[in-house]
Amino acid sequence: xxxxxxxxVIGISFLTACKSQNVNIKTTEKVIVxxxxxxxxxxxxxxxxxMDGRARAFNLTEEDKIRLAKAKKNVTLYYNHQEPVSLxxxxxxxxxxxxxxxDKLFGPELxxxxxxxxxxxxxKIILIKRSRGGMSLYGAWNPDWTxxxxxKMKEDTAPKLYTDFISYTKEILKDFNKEDYELSGxxxxxxxxxxxxxxxxxxxxxxxxxxxxxxxNGVRTEFSTPKLPFIIFQVGHxxxxxxxxNIANNDAFVSxxxxxxxxxxxxxYRRNPLPLGHxxxxxxxxxxxxxxxxxQKDYK
Length: 300
Known about the structure:
Strand content: 15-25%
CATH class of the largest domain: Alpha Beta
CATH topology of the largest domain: Rossmann fold
CATH superfamily of the largest domain: SGNH hydrolase
Structural class: alpha/beta
Distance between the termini: 57 Å
Largest sheet: 7 strands, mixed
Strand order of the largest sheet: 4-3-7-1-8-9-10
Number of helices: 13
Radius of gyration: 24 Å
């Protein structure tokens, strides 16, 4: 009898405590379930050929392939208006096939996605990539696009990439509830064309800081994410690189990934010999991984 009374007292005390804190068993279960839900992490990727990717996929090691197979389970790639696919290497254009001797290439997205998958295995991850080789920020990628600017860069018949990227991304995201995803960051690999002073003069480089600032602010405004992280990989030279550094120094949510010409440096990224150029398999793997490291370091 005493045992029964003791159990009753304990039970009444527990229920009283729960009531005083506005807690019940069902409420607790709901909180646990909600806390276990993981938002989809969405990343934007944009730029010219080294973002598009010119690393030969046949160099992937068996370990790389095993890691990629696992990443396919939770990483989806949207690439240049093609059908979305689980993370994979991409089939490239005919001219690239001729130059690189293969139709299977990849860019920073591959190992960036693999690293994200391994770090966030319980999240779905979406990578939205819009890229095209040879395009400038002064012309095709310019938020303040004009026919005059595009013509100067010989891009008057090319897509208006900034406008296209915005509409493409919005078209993708409209299929998801806003409560179900978070915009996690944007990766940028572009600047070589604007650095080509002999071909296009000094204006593209001199206005690069203004144009890239406009692009960053434009993307943040379009997607109502004023603190969207923006990570820049150093390409190009001269005033273009200086502009990248200035933006990163003056915006707490912009990061700059430098590179060195010193082959013994950890931030050296080897390219194929000219006239082919572009980053090798080892370098592109390193670039994708470096994007992930900067994201984790600066914005996790």
